[in-house]
Design a protein that fits this description.
Layout lengths: L18 H17 L11 H17 L12 H36 L4
Length: 115
């Protein structure tokens, strides 16, 4: 029998994601989408300040012995992870946008002999 090859050693390891915990984060996202709208978190003013604060409130409640959010019945930790994912995503997207702008400036300077 011939052995197959697959060169995936440098690929991201999604098999390491703890999907049981991730399912709880998805429950938070689903609740939020039903309460507000899908991707409403992207429209929140000062999200980069407000979502870390929300994450800390959920972590604080958890550390003080309240495992579940009283409004949703979902783990405070899942709410905190969700808020932190929002912040991380917004930061990554802002970084991507800055990189695109820098590359566009460099290309413009190269075209006009300013670089």
């Amino acid at each position: 029998m011939i052995e197959g090859k697959k060169y995936d050693q440098d690929k991201m390891r999604y098999d390491l994601v703890p999907f049981r915990g991730l399912d709880e984060v998805v429950r938070v996202l689903t609740y939020g989408a039903q309460k507000y709208s899908p991707d409403n978190w992207r429209k929140v003013e000062r999200a980069e300040e407000r979502y870390p604060a929300a994450a800390l409130r959920h972590i604080s409640a958890y550390l003080q012995g309240e495992p579940y959010d009283p409004e949703t019945g979902i783990s405070h930790l899942a709410h905190a992870v969700c808020s932190l994912l929002f912040v991380l995503t917004l930061e990554e997207e802002a970084s991507d946008e800055l990189l695109k702008e820098r590359k566009a400036r460099e290309a413009d300077n190269a075209c006009h002999g300013n670089g």
